[in-house]
Request: fold
Amino acid sequence: MPDSIPTDSVGLVTPQVYKFEEPLTLRSGKVLPEYELVVETYGKLNSEKTNALLICHALSGDHHAAGYHSKNDSKPGWWDSCIGPGKAIDTNLFYVVSLNNFGGCAGSTGPASINPETNKYYGPDFPVVTVRDWVSSQLRLMDRMEIPEWAAVVGGSLGGMQVLRWAISYPDKVRHAVCIAAAPKLSAQNIAFNEVARHSITSDPDFHEGRYLEKGTYPKQGLMLARMVGHITYLSDSAMRAKFGKSVSNFEQDTAENFGRDLRSGKLSFGFDVDFQVESYLHYQGERFSENFDANTYLLMTKALDYFDPTVDFEGDLSKAFANSDCKFLLMSFSTDWRFPPERSREIVSDLLKAGREVSYLEIEADQGHDAFLLPIPRYIEALSGYLQRVHQENESDAP
Amino acid sequence: MRPDLEIIQQWIQPNSKVLDLGCGDGSLLHYLQTTKNVHGIGLEIDETNIQHCLDRGTNVIEQNLDKGLSNFQSGSFDTVLLAQTLQALSKPDHLIDEMLRIGKNGIVTFPNFGNWKSRLYLASRGRMPVSKFIPHSWYNTPNIHFCTVKDFDALCTERNIKVLARTVVDLEHQGSWYMKAWPNLLGEIAIYHISKDTD
Reply:
């Protein structure tokens, strides 16, 4: 944590645990007999209970979206750039609810939790979860928290898919759906990358068919490799060139571009060790991730992405899925995002229009690829902020 | 509100669905939303304008009109608006066809190049008119398809488009009996209410 808490930070936050003992039947047909959800909240619920805003996290996210857990934290929550007093998701105006989805590994019940039936780690026995299952659990959380409706449900990437599911399944509970850098369903290329990630995990000798925790180990190499592949898909070519192309050799001067080929030690090794900065960066990212993330959760999250297809109940027609989605929609995409490029958001917009829904859509110029949705890109932040200010004003004018 | 928008809004029914092509800062849609309970969506490409729309709670979609409107269903809107944008489109005739596919009726406004000031400028100086009315040089103008009231009338006839109403006004958006008498000569801005001629 910085020496003093910035004034636009939510400050020190303490997660809370909600235990649910009523079994949850999942889309797969399997039943989760009981589960816990770990939740953080920022801001205050108003007396009319109209200002609650749900944050849905993406693949590697969790409940810790803003602020600090302790004074020793080096970094704030994953979306601290957007959530806080006076920020785009303004905690002076909204009561922000952020949870770790079940199947996750940051405190909610998941593969690394103890299965009450066996008293062993769930591991590979944890059921495959879908976006729909998460939203069902979020609905239960909402009831438990006595929140009658969300002023807005907000999420990027896999979080954006949860936003769409909310709008489709529980339209009367959502006034505004804010879906950022998402897709109506994954493409073959998306699934292919996920499969490479999964295969690298499952083929690690330390994976032990998912029972690595019982063996007192974990598939570090596999998880690293999965994250390295994933990370490449989150960045754009231009972002990588900029990030790893800072040094330019003397004879090229500052007019030349080196395509992001900065060397780690200034010269080639003529061996198979790391030569370029980009390699060392990916190793570092992979390593750090593998130490903080559960491999079985990674498998589950990527499957949830692959399986997401809200049209399955609507004859393959997304516009029919939105037939009752009376909430207002804001969608945003980023120009260099090649994981879920603007075309994918435009597909959603077209189907919303076909369904006669109220929608706004922005295509943000940004070099950072898919990662842009987590970054403080001025136009993106201004748009989100402006939109949510209106949501707040609506709240105020509707108040009795 | 811009006075041409003042005229346009009279042709829009309460509780109707309106698509505003090139909606600018969303002021007309916002006005229609609040006074006529219109359900509106605007299309716009200018970032600042888009932000204004979000700030005032008007639905806005970032979309380039020159790339078509194929994402809009036939008959999905009551009125489709095109205010002061016609002359900047790469295929204005095509867009008008699209407007009348998507909407039951359309409203088009454009600067009338047949106005006497343009004619006089070109006739006397022999150069493309530059004025308060058309403030760009020929090489940097966004306005690539100027037309006159007569040209637009001809297009409507050719495409079986019914002109439900036509008004011409000056830059202050004042109409007068002499403009009604000689619209192509005296009108500076033309405002058309059109629909498909289904007879």
In short: The longest strand of chain B covers residues 103-111. The beta strands of chain B are 17-21, 39-44, 60-62, 77-83, 103-111, 161-169, 189-196.
